[in-house]
Each structure stands twice: as structure tokens, then as C-alpha cells.
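Sequence, please.
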């Protein structure tokens, strides 16, 4: 295997291969080239002479600097890492290096950002935003928001609910989540009361279709058709503006549901089940707490606070 003491030759060979053999689009080639230029400039500043001298720690430091210095988000760094992996695997396949330095690097998709969470006070303000003066569908909006927060529903899940999947007697929803995985979620009395009012006072006037797959959807539009996912987003945002909360997206209700449960002492495994997460690691992101809570726990439970 030849010794490669530079970056220019290998990078040029790799970009030529992408263009000629892989047939990538010009914009994609430019993105690869830009990522590799960033890497080469950074590694040279670290004193790395060429591709054969690149170690995993050099690349890890490079990725950390992209985040710390250039403030790139995890998605951008993940794309950057994908470029590095393809590049070094190309070099390894062509015997220009003896070992792939990207093999030990963790994907930034695991660098979870804390989700946007509304405080209980702001959540209360959002739930109170739908009112009669805001249109004849205010009860539908109220029921939708209450169900999303009470059960931690995704926008797609609340839009897909059928009337038969809501049990008003025991206040439970049968929710179909990702991969059509079903879960039972209790909704609580406030959400149940507003949903019952919507079903009694508003939905009968919206339901215009007596048969077909759409006839039994719980939440309907003004035309009597089921709400689409994009309509859920619009309803949440419209009521957030009415509440003076700015730009709120539907997933923040789900984030708030989980965070408020854990802050109230709920077991992590229970929250995992309620959210429908297959992996508890996905649920653990909600275990973040503020410092006032930490201080209160120390004060209350430590033998010498």
C-alpha cells in the first residue's frame, strides 16, 4: 500500500469517482467537496499531513468544532459525517489507507436536542384559546388540543382517530401509532368532557358522509371530511397565536405531556408505554429537569440538605 502524505490527490480522485462512476448531481458533488474542504483545512491546522495519518480522534475533534465553533445543527453534522465515511471507505477500498478512521465515530443523530416544552401555565393558556367567538368549530379545536395533550398524541395520530377508538365510559383512547402499533392511553376527565361536548354539539352538524372509510373519523373538517395532518398543524398554530404564544407546533404538546408526567413523578417505563416508544432510550430525552427541581429534590430527600 502506497504512503499518502497529502489530501489533495485522494480528495480529487474521490470527487472524480463520484462524478464519473456514481453520477452524482452537481449540487451533491458541491456538498461533498465543501465538506471535504472543511475537513482538510481543519486537519491541516491540527498538524495532520495526509489521509494516511488521520486518526479517529482527529475526525471527532473536527466534528466537535463544527458544532462548537460554527454552530452547525446535528442534522448538518450527520451529513458531514456521512461524507467523511464515504470518503474514507473509498480510500480503504482503493488501498490508499490501511484502516478506516471513521469506524468508531458515533452518528450525531444520537445528539438529541432537548425538545421544545411548554410550561404548565402556557399549556393551560393554549388549551383555553378555542372559544365561541373564534368560530363554529371551536369545540372541535378544543377537543383536539385536549386530546393531544392528555394522551401525548402525534399530529398524525389525532387526525386518524375513529369515533369507536374513544371510550367515553372509561376515558381511554385506542391509538394507532407508527408501524400501525396500537396502544391504550387514558385521557383524563377534562379531555373527556370536551370530547363528549364536541361529539354531541358539533360533530353531528359536520358529518355528511354516512358510509366509506372517512365516515367514522373522530375529528372532521368544515366539509365533513377527516382532518388531515397539515390541518392539525394549522389548528395548533392558529390557537397558539390567539393565546399569544407565537409559533407552536403539534409535537410540543406531546413533548409537554411526557415532560410534565415525569416532572410529576411518573415512572419512565409508564411514559414509554403511553408514548408508544419501542426503545426506552427515545423516552429518556424527557428526563431533563430544571435546576429548581433538582434543588427541591436535594432539599427534600438528602439527609443533610
Amino acid at each position: 500500500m502506497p504512503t499518502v502524505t497529502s489530501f489533495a490527490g485522494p480528495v480529487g480522485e474521490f470527487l472524480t469517482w463520484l462524478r464519473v462512476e456514481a453520477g452524482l448531481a452537481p449540487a451533491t458533488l458541491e456538498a461533498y467537496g465543501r465538506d471535504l474542504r472543511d475537513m482538510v483545512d481543519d486537519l491541516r491546522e491540527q498538524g495532520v499531513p495526509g489521509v494516511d495519518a488521520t486518526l479517529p480522534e482527529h475526525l471527532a475533534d473536527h466534528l466537535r468544532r463544527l458544532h462548537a465553533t460554527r454552530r452547525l445543527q446535528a442534522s448538518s453534522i450527520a451529513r458531514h459525517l456521512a461524507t467523511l465515511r464515504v470518503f474514507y471507505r473509498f480510500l480503504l477500498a482503493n488501498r490508499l489507507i490501511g484502516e478506516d478512521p471513521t469506524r468508531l465515530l458515533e452518528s450525531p443523530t444520537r445528539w438529541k436536542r432537548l425538545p421544545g416544552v411548554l410550561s404548565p401555565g402556557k399549556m393551560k393558556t393554549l388549551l383555553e384559546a378555542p372559544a365561541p367567538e373564534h368560530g363554529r368549530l371551536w369545540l372541535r379545536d378544543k377537543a383536539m388540543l385536549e386530546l393531544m395533550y392528555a394522551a401525548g398524541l402525534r399530529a398524525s395520530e389525532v387526525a386518524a382517530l375513529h369515533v369507536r377508538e374513544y371510550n367515553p365510559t372509561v376515558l381511554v383512547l385506542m391509538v394507532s401509532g407508527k408501524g400501525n402499533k396500537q396502544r391504550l392511553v387514558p385521557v383524563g376527565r377534562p379531555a373527556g368532557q370536551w370530547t363528549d361536548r364536541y361529539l354531541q354539539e358539533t360533530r353531528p352538524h359536520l358529518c355528511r358522509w354516512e358510509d366509506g372509510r372517512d365516515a367514522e373519523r373522530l375529528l372532521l373538517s368544515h366539509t365533513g371530511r377527516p382532518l388531515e395532518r397539515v390541518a392539525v398543524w394549522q389548528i395548533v398554530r392558529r390557537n397558539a397565536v390567539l393565546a399569544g404564544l407565537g409559533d407552536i407546533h403539534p409535537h410540543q404538546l406531546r413533548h409537554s405531556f411526557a415532560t410534565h408526567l415525569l416532572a410529576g413523578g411518573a415512572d419512565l417505563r409508564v411514559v414509554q408505554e403511553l408514548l408508544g416508544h419501542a426503545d426506552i432510550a427515545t423516552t429518556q430525552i424527557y428526563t431533563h429537569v430544571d435546576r429548581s427541581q433538582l434543588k427541591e429534590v436535594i432539599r427534600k430527600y438528602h439527609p443533610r440538605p
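The chain has a mean pLDDT of 86.
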